[in-house]
Amino acid sequence: IDGERSAASEGKVPLGWVLPVCPFRGLQQQRLPRLHCPQSFPPLFSLSRLLDVLPSFGFLFDIDGVLVRGKTPIPAAKTAFQKLVNSQGQFLVPVVFVTNAGDCLRQKKADQLSHILGVPVNQVMMSHSPLRMFKRYHPKCVLVSGQGPLLDIAHDLGFSQPVTVEMLRAKYPLLDVVDHDRTPGVLVSLSVVLFGEPVRWETNLQLIIDVLLTSGYPGNPYHHENYPHIPVLACNMDLMWVAEAQSPRFGHGTFMVCLENIYKKITGKDLKYEALMGKPSELTYQYADYLIRAQAAERQWKQPIRTLYAVGDNLMTDVYGANLYNRYLEKKNSRKGSKTWIQAKNELASSAATHCRSVLVCTGVYNPHTEVPLDTKESRTEMVFHGHRDFRFDPGLVEPDHVVPDVNAAVDLIFQLENFVPN
Protein backbone atom coordinates (compact mmCIF):
# COMPACT_ATOMS: atom_id res chain seq x y z
CA ILE A 1 0.00 0.00 0.00
CA ASP A 2 3.00 2.29 0.47
CA GLY A 3 3.72 2.00 -3.23
CA GLU A 4 0.13 2.80 -4.12
CA ARG A 5 0.16 5.81 -1.81
CA SER A 6 3.35 7.02 -3.46
CA ALA A 7 1.89 6.55 -6.93
CA ALA A 8 -1.23 8.45 -5.96
CA SER A 9 0.70 11.33 -4.47
CA GLU A 10 2.82 11.57 -7.62
CA GLY A 11 -0.23 11.68 -9.86
CA LYS A 12 0.51 8.32 -11.53
CA VAL A 13 -2.78 6.58 -10.75
CA PRO A 14 -4.54 5.55 -13.98
CA LEU A 15 -8.09 6.54 -14.87
CA GLY A 16 -10.76 4.35 -13.26
CA TRP A 17 -8.37 2.90 -10.67
CA VAL A 18 -10.20 1.22 -7.75
CA LEU A 19 -8.76 1.29 -4.26
CA PRO A 20 -8.17 -2.17 -2.77
CA VAL A 21 -9.45 -3.26 0.59
CA CYS A 22 -7.49 -1.13 3.02
CA PRO A 23 -5.71 -2.97 5.85
CA PHE A 24 -5.98 0.00 8.20
CA ARG A 25 -8.42 -0.38 11.08
CA GLY A 26 -11.68 1.40 10.41
CA LEU A 27 -11.68 0.55 6.71
CA GLN A 28 -11.66 -3.20 6.98
CA GLN A 29 -14.11 -4.98 4.71
CA GLN A 30 -14.91 -1.73 2.92
CA ARG A 31 -14.26 -0.83 -0.72
CA LEU A 32 -14.31 2.76 -1.77
CA PRO A 33 -16.29 3.69 -4.91
CA ARG A 34 -14.59 3.83 -8.32
CA LEU A 35 -12.77 7.12 -8.74
CA HIS A 36 -13.54 9.18 -11.86
CA CYS A 37 -10.95 11.81 -12.55
CA PRO A 38 -8.65 13.25 -15.21
CA GLN A 39 -5.74 11.21 -16.47
CA SER A 40 -3.84 11.90 -13.25
CA PHE A 41 -4.73 12.78 -9.67
CA PRO A 42 -3.78 16.17 -8.22
CA PRO A 43 -0.37 15.99 -6.55
CA LEU A 44 -1.88 16.43 -3.07
CA PHE A 45 -4.08 13.35 -3.33
CA SER A 46 -3.06 10.45 -1.12
CA LEU A 47 -4.59 7.56 0.72
CA SER A 48 -3.77 9.25 4.01
CA ARG A 49 -6.21 12.04 3.11
CA LEU A 50 -8.92 9.45 2.62
CA LEU A 51 -8.04 7.92 5.95
CA ASP A 52 -8.31 11.32 7.62
CA VAL A 53 -12.05 11.54 6.98
CA LEU A 54 -12.86 8.05 8.17
CA PRO A 55 -11.76 7.79 11.80
CA SER A 56 -13.34 5.05 13.90
CA PHE A 57 -12.26 6.51 17.24
CA GLY A 58 -12.45 9.75 19.18
CA PHE A 59 -10.62 11.59 21.97
CA LEU A 60 -12.01 12.82 25.29
CA PHE A 61 -9.34 15.12 26.69
CA ASP A 62 -9.29 16.37 30.25
CA ILE A 63 -7.90 19.91 30.47
CA ASP A 64 -6.42 20.74 33.88
CA GLY A 65 -3.38 18.58 34.52
CA VAL A 66 -3.37 17.25 30.94
CA LEU A 67 -3.22 20.33 28.72
CA VAL A 68 -2.60 23.09 31.27
CA ARG A 69 -1.62 23.61 34.90
CA GLY A 70 -3.66 26.59 35.98
CA LYS A 71 -3.05 29.06 33.16
CA THR A 72 0.28 27.58 32.11
CA PRO A 73 0.24 25.24 29.08
CA ILE A 74 1.91 21.87 29.50
CA PRO A 75 4.64 21.78 26.79
CA ALA A 76 3.58 18.40 25.41
CA ALA A 77 0.08 19.69 24.64
CA LYS A 78 1.06 21.90 21.70
CA THR A 79 3.09 19.09 20.13
CA ALA A 80 0.17 16.71 20.57
CA PHE A 81 -2.29 19.12 18.97
CA GLN A 82 -0.11 19.56 15.91
CA LYS A 83 -0.62 15.86 15.26
CA LEU A 84 -4.39 16.13 15.63
CA VAL A 85 -5.11 18.68 12.91
CA ASN A 86 -4.54 18.91 9.18
CA SER A 87 -2.97 21.80 7.26
CA GLN A 88 -6.31 23.66 7.36
CA GLY A 89 -6.48 23.43 11.14
CA GLN A 90 -9.30 20.86 11.09
CA PHE A 91 -9.25 17.96 13.51
CA LEU A 92 -8.39 14.62 11.92
CA VAL A 93 -10.53 12.75 14.46
CA PRO A 94 -13.46 13.83 16.65
CA VAL A 95 -12.24 15.49 19.83
CA VAL A 96 -14.13 16.73 22.89
CA PHE A 97 -12.47 18.54 25.78
CA VAL A 98 -14.18 17.28 28.94
CA THR A 99 -13.41 19.32 32.03
CA ASN A 100 -14.87 19.16 35.51
CA ALA A 101 -14.57 22.94 35.76
CA GLY A 102 -17.89 24.73 36.12
CA ASP A 103 -17.01 28.33 36.93
CA CYS A 104 -17.30 29.78 33.43
CA LEU A 105 -19.09 29.54 30.11
CA ARG A 106 -17.91 27.08 27.49
CA GLN A 107 -16.74 29.94 25.29
CA LYS A 108 -14.33 31.21 27.94
CA LYS A 109 -12.84 27.74 28.42
CA ALA A 110 -12.41 27.44 24.65
CA ASP A 111 -10.71 30.84 24.59
CA GLN A 112 -8.34 29.72 27.35
CA LEU A 113 -7.14 26.92 25.07
CA SER A 114 -6.58 29.24 22.11
CA HIS A 115 -2.92 29.77 23.01
CA ILE A 116 -2.42 26.05 22.32
CA LEU A 117 -4.88 25.58 19.47
CA GLY A 118 -8.11 27.15 18.27
CA VAL A 119 -10.89 25.06 19.80
CA PRO A 120 -14.54 25.45 18.68
CA VAL A 121 -16.94 26.01 21.57
CA ASN A 122 -19.03 22.98 20.58
CA GLN A 123 -16.02 20.77 21.36
CA VAL A 124 -15.79 21.95 24.97
CA MET A 125 -17.81 20.21 27.65
CA MET A 126 -18.04 21.68 31.14
CA SER A 127 -19.14 19.70 34.19
CA HIS A 128 -22.53 21.40 33.99
CA SER A 129 -23.10 20.83 30.24
CA PRO A 130 -25.42 17.79 30.73
CA LEU A 131 -27.84 20.11 32.58
CA ARG A 132 -29.05 21.11 29.12
CA MET A 133 -30.90 17.78 29.10
CA PHE A 134 -32.77 18.46 32.37
CA LYS A 135 -35.44 20.52 30.66
CA ARG A 136 -38.10 19.87 33.31
CA TYR A 137 -36.14 22.08 35.73
CA HIS A 138 -35.46 24.91 33.29
CA PRO A 139 -38.69 26.89 33.87
CA LYS A 140 -38.50 26.54 37.67
CA CYS A 141 -36.82 28.73 40.25
CA VAL A 142 -33.45 27.20 41.15
CA LEU A 143 -30.82 28.21 43.68
CA VAL A 144 -27.38 28.09 42.07
CA SER A 145 -24.14 27.81 44.01
CA GLY A 146 -20.58 28.26 42.82
CA GLN A 147 -18.48 31.08 41.45
CA GLY A 148 -18.04 32.93 38.19
CA PRO A 149 -20.92 34.32 36.09
CA LEU A 150 -23.51 32.00 37.63
CA LEU A 151 -26.57 33.69 36.13
CA ASP A 152 -25.03 33.71 32.65
CA ILE A 153 -24.08 30.04 32.98
CA ALA A 154 -27.57 29.11 34.21
CA HIS A 155 -29.32 31.04 31.43
CA ASP A 156 -26.98 29.52 28.82
CA LEU A 157 -27.95 26.05 30.04
CA GLY A 158 -31.66 26.88 29.72
CA PHE A 159 -32.70 27.90 33.25
CA SER A 160 -35.12 30.83 33.18
CA GLN A 161 -35.34 31.65 36.92
CA PRO A 162 -31.93 31.15 38.53
CA VAL A 163 -31.24 32.68 41.94
CA THR A 164 -27.73 33.01 43.36
CA VAL A 165 -26.75 32.67 47.01
CA GLU A 166 -25.87 36.37 46.97
CA MET A 167 -29.40 37.19 45.84
CA LEU A 168 -30.74 34.97 48.61
CA ARG A 169 -28.62 36.80 51.20
CA ALA A 170 -30.04 40.10 49.98
CA LYS A 171 -33.61 38.84 50.37
CA TYR A 172 -33.11 37.20 53.78
CA PRO A 173 -30.73 39.30 55.90
CA LEU A 174 -31.31 37.26 59.05
CA LEU A 175 -30.11 34.02 57.49
CA ASP A 176 -26.52 35.20 57.10
CA VAL A 177 -25.26 36.75 60.31
CA VAL A 178 -22.20 38.24 58.62
CA ASP A 179 -24.02 41.24 57.12
CA HIS A 180 -27.33 42.73 58.28
CA ASP A 181 -27.56 45.67 55.86
CA ARG A 182 -30.13 44.08 53.61
CA THR A 183 -33.90 44.18 53.22
CA PRO A 184 -36.07 41.05 53.74
CA GLY A 185 -38.00 39.71 50.79
CA VAL A 186 -39.88 36.66 49.54
CA LEU A 187 -38.20 33.91 47.53
CA VAL A 188 -39.08 30.34 46.68
CA SER A 189 -36.48 27.83 45.44
CA LEU A 190 -37.80 24.55 44.05
CA SER A 191 -34.40 22.96 43.45
CA VAL A 192 -30.69 23.48 44.09
CA VAL A 193 -27.96 23.35 41.45
CA LEU A 194 -24.34 23.09 42.63
CA PHE A 195 -22.07 24.31 39.83
CA GLY A 196 -18.80 24.29 41.73
CA GLU A 197 -16.99 25.33 44.89
CA PRO A 198 -18.03 28.82 46.04
CA VAL A 199 -15.81 31.57 47.45
CA ARG A 200 -17.70 31.95 50.75
CA TRP A 201 -18.11 28.36 51.87
CA GLU A 202 -19.75 29.15 55.23
CA THR A 203 -22.44 31.35 53.65
CA ASN A 204 -23.23 28.88 50.88
CA LEU A 205 -23.36 25.93 53.28
CA GLN A 206 -25.67 27.81 55.64
CA LEU A 207 -28.13 29.03 53.01
CA ILE A 208 -28.26 25.77 51.06
CA ILE A 209 -29.08 23.94 54.30
CA ASP A 210 -31.78 26.57 54.98
CA VAL A 211 -33.34 25.94 51.57
CA LEU A 212 -33.21 22.14 51.95
CA LEU A 213 -34.71 22.10 55.45
CA THR A 214 -37.55 24.47 54.54
CA SER A 215 -38.52 22.84 51.23
CA GLY A 216 -37.47 25.93 49.32
CA TYR A 217 -38.90 28.59 51.66
CA PRO A 218 -35.75 29.73 53.49
CA GLY A 219 -37.58 32.25 55.69
CA ASN A 220 -39.59 29.48 57.38
CA PRO A 221 -38.59 27.33 60.38
CA TYR A 222 -36.83 24.02 59.76
CA HIS A 223 -39.02 20.98 59.16
CA HIS A 224 -36.98 17.77 59.41
CA GLU A 225 -39.98 15.71 58.37
CA ASN A 226 -39.75 17.17 54.85
CA TYR A 227 -37.83 14.24 53.46
CA PRO A 228 -36.81 13.57 50.81
CA HIS A 229 -35.86 17.20 50.37
CA ILE A 230 -36.21 19.28 47.22
CA PRO A 231 -34.08 18.14 44.25
CA VAL A 232 -30.32 18.74 44.31
CA LEU A 233 -28.30 18.53 41.09
CA ALA A 234 -24.53 18.62 41.50
CA CYS A 235 -21.70 19.14 39.02
CA ASN A 236 -18.01 18.33 39.49
CA MET A 237 -17.24 15.84 42.25
CA ASP A 238 -13.46 16.33 42.23
CA LEU A 239 -12.16 16.16 45.77
CA MET A 240 -9.00 18.01 44.71
CA TRP A 241 -7.50 19.50 41.58
CA VAL A 242 -4.09 20.70 40.44
CA ALA A 243 -3.14 24.28 39.55
CA GLU A 244 0.23 26.08 39.82
CA ALA A 245 0.68 25.10 43.48
CA GLN A 246 2.92 22.13 44.24
CA SER A 247 0.15 20.24 46.06
CA PRO A 248 -3.50 19.68 45.01
CA ARG A 249 -6.20 22.20 46.02
CA PHE A 250 -9.69 21.56 47.44
CA GLY A 251 -12.27 20.97 44.73
CA HIS A 252 -16.04 21.01 44.64
CA GLY A 253 -16.08 17.44 45.90
CA THR A 254 -14.67 18.71 49.19
CA PHE A 255 -17.46 21.29 49.45
CA MET A 256 -20.00 18.53 48.78
CA VAL A 257 -18.47 16.40 51.57
CA CYS A 258 -19.03 19.32 53.94
CA LEU A 259 -22.62 19.85 52.79
CA GLU A 260 -23.47 16.14 53.01
CA ASN A 261 -22.04 15.78 56.50
CA ILE A 262 -23.71 18.94 57.84
CA TYR A 263 -27.07 17.80 56.49
CA LYS A 264 -26.69 14.35 58.02
CA LYS A 265 -25.44 15.75 61.33
CA ILE A 266 -28.55 17.94 61.59
CA THR A 267 -31.19 15.53 60.27
CA GLY A 268 -29.68 12.08 60.74
CA LYS A 269 -30.48 11.37 57.09
CA ASP A 270 -28.45 11.25 53.91
CA LEU A 271 -28.44 14.12 51.47
CA LYS A 272 -29.90 12.83 48.20
CA TYR A 273 -28.94 13.93 44.70
CA GLU A 274 -31.34 14.04 41.78
CA ALA A 275 -28.32 13.80 39.48
CA LEU A 276 -24.54 13.84 39.71
CA MET A 277 -22.58 15.02 36.70
CA GLY A 278 -19.02 15.71 35.84
CA LYS A 279 -16.46 12.93 35.71
CA PRO A 280 -16.73 10.09 36.74
CA SER A 281 -20.51 10.22 36.24
CA GLU A 282 -21.83 7.86 33.57
CA LEU A 283 -24.15 10.66 32.48
CA THR A 284 -21.16 12.86 31.64
CA TYR A 285 -19.62 10.23 29.38
CA GLN A 286 -22.96 9.60 27.67
CA TYR A 287 -23.20 13.30 26.88
CA ALA A 288 -19.56 13.44 25.74
CA ASP A 289 -20.23 10.45 23.49
CA TYR A 290 -23.19 12.35 22.03
CA LEU A 291 -20.96 15.38 21.30
CA ILE A 292 -18.42 13.11 19.58
CA ARG A 293 -21.14 11.72 17.31
CA ALA A 294 -22.50 15.19 16.59
CA GLN A 295 -19.02 16.35 15.59
CA ALA A 296 -18.50 13.36 13.32
CA ALA A 297 -21.89 13.95 11.70
CA GLU A 298 -21.08 17.62 11.13
CA ARG A 299 -17.87 16.61 9.35
CA GLN A 300 -19.85 13.97 7.40
CA TRP A 301 -17.68 11.14 8.65
CA LYS A 302 -19.69 8.03 7.82
CA GLN A 303 -17.51 5.58 9.72
CA PRO A 304 -19.10 4.79 13.13
CA ILE A 305 -17.06 5.87 16.13
CA ARG A 306 -16.37 2.57 17.89
CA THR A 307 -13.74 3.46 20.49
CA LEU A 308 -13.41 6.47 22.79
CA TYR A 309 -10.06 7.27 24.40
CA ALA A 310 -10.39 9.26 27.62
CA VAL A 311 -7.10 10.98 28.44
CA GLY A 312 -6.81 12.32 31.98
CA ASP A 313 -4.62 12.74 35.05
CA ASN A 314 -6.94 11.68 37.86
CA LEU A 315 -7.50 8.05 38.84
CA MET A 316 -10.71 8.79 40.73
CA THR A 317 -12.37 10.85 38.02
CA ASP A 318 -10.84 10.40 34.55
CA VAL A 319 -9.86 6.75 34.84
CA TYR A 320 -12.75 5.68 37.06
CA GLY A 321 -15.27 7.42 34.78
CA ALA A 322 -13.85 6.02 31.54
CA ASN A 323 -13.75 2.49 32.92
CA LEU A 324 -17.26 2.85 34.35
CA TYR A 325 -18.55 3.99 30.95
CA ASN A 326 -16.69 1.14 29.26
CA ARG A 327 -18.49 -1.26 31.58
CA TYR A 328 -21.80 0.38 30.66
CA LEU A 329 -21.04 0.04 26.93
CA GLU A 330 -20.16 -3.62 27.31
CA LYS A 331 -23.42 -4.31 29.13
CA LYS A 332 -25.40 -2.23 26.66
CA ASN A 333 -23.92 -4.01 23.67
CA SER A 334 -24.56 -7.40 25.27
CA ARG A 335 -28.17 -6.36 25.93
CA LYS A 336 -27.75 -7.00 29.64
CA GLY A 337 -27.49 -3.43 30.83
CA SER A 338 -30.29 -1.85 32.81
CA LYS A 339 -31.93 1.22 31.34
CA THR A 340 -31.28 4.59 32.92
CA TRP A 341 -33.46 7.64 32.45
CA ILE A 342 -31.02 9.07 29.94
CA GLN A 343 -31.37 6.06 27.62
CA ALA A 344 -34.88 7.24 26.88
CA LYS A 345 -33.31 10.22 25.13
CA ASN A 346 -32.78 9.03 21.57
CA GLU A 347 -29.99 11.50 20.88
CA LEU A 348 -27.93 10.07 23.74
CA ALA A 349 -28.92 6.43 23.44
CA SER A 350 -27.85 5.86 19.84
CA SER A 351 -24.14 5.46 20.50
CA ALA A 352 -22.23 3.12 18.20
CA ALA A 353 -19.28 3.03 20.60
CA THR A 354 -18.26 -0.36 21.94
CA HIS A 355 -15.33 0.64 24.16
CA CYS A 356 -14.08 3.56 26.23
CA ARG A 357 -10.37 3.22 27.00
CA SER A 358 -8.69 5.08 29.86
CA VAL A 359 -5.29 6.69 29.30
CA LEU A 360 -3.55 8.15 32.36
CA VAL A 361 -0.95 10.90 32.03
CA CYS A 362 1.61 11.79 34.72
CA THR A 363 1.48 15.59 34.42
CA GLY A 364 -1.28 16.36 36.93
CA VAL A 365 -2.91 14.88 40.02
CA TYR A 366 -1.68 11.33 39.45
CA ASN A 367 1.28 10.28 41.57
CA PRO A 368 2.84 7.06 40.26
CA HIS A 369 4.16 6.32 43.76
CA THR A 370 0.67 6.30 45.37
CA GLU A 371 -0.80 2.85 45.92
CA VAL A 372 -4.28 2.06 44.70
CA PRO A 373 -6.60 1.70 47.72
CA LEU A 374 -7.94 -1.69 48.73
CA ASP A 375 -11.67 -2.36 48.78
CA THR A 376 -11.80 -4.70 51.75
CA LYS A 377 -13.75 -4.35 55.00
CA GLU A 378 -10.80 -5.83 56.86
CA SER A 379 -8.38 -3.13 55.70
CA ARG A 380 -10.16 0.15 56.35
CA THR A 381 -6.87 1.86 57.17
CA GLU A 382 -5.57 1.15 53.66
CA MET A 383 -8.69 2.40 51.92
CA VAL A 384 -8.41 6.04 50.84
CA PHE A 385 -11.11 6.48 48.22
CA HIS A 386 -11.19 10.05 46.90
CA GLY A 387 -14.29 9.47 44.80
CA HIS A 388 -17.76 10.66 45.68
CA ARG A 389 -19.79 9.02 48.42
CA ASP A 390 -22.39 7.66 45.98
CA PHE A 391 -19.85 5.86 43.78
CA ARG A 392 -18.87 2.45 45.05
CA PHE A 393 -15.18 1.81 45.00
CA ASP A 394 -14.01 -0.98 42.70
CA PRO A 395 -10.24 -1.50 42.31
CA GLY A 396 -10.75 -2.46 38.68
CA LEU A 397 -12.27 0.91 37.87
CA VAL A 398 -9.16 2.84 38.89
CA GLU A 399 -6.81 0.66 36.86
CA PRO A 400 -5.99 2.56 33.64
CA ASP A 401 -5.75 0.77 30.33
CA HIS A 402 -2.59 2.72 29.55
CA VAL A 403 -0.17 4.95 31.49
CA VAL A 404 1.95 7.47 29.56
CA PRO A 405 4.20 10.39 30.51
CA ASP A 406 2.12 13.14 28.89
CA VAL A 407 -0.60 13.95 26.38
CA ASN A 408 1.80 13.87 23.42
CA ALA A 409 2.76 10.30 24.27
CA ALA A 410 -0.96 9.52 24.64
CA VAL A 411 -1.71 10.71 21.10
CA ASP A 412 1.22 8.71 19.68
CA LEU A 413 0.08 5.59 21.51
CA ILE A 414 -3.53 5.87 20.36
CA PHE A 415 -2.57 6.49 16.74
CA GLN A 416 -0.40 3.39 16.95
CA LEU A 417 -3.18 1.30 18.52
CA GLU A 418 -5.62 2.43 15.82
CA ASN A 419 -3.13 2.10 12.94
CA PHE A 420 -4.01 5.69 12.15
CA VAL A 421 -1.70 7.60 9.80
CA PRO A 422 -2.20 11.39 10.05
CA ASN A 423 -1.01 13.87 7.41
UniProtKB/TrEMBL annotation:
A GO BP annotation: glycerophospholipid biosynthetic process
Keyword Signal: yes
Pfam families: Hydrolase_6
SUPFAM superfamilies given in the database record: HAD-like (SSF56784)
GO CC list: mitochondrion
TM regions (residue ranges): none
Assigned keywords, A-Z: Signal
Family to which this protein belongs: Belongs to the HAD-like hydrolase superfamily.
Protein name: Haloacid dehalogenase-like hydrolase domain-containing 5
Organism: Phasianus colchicus (Common pheasant)
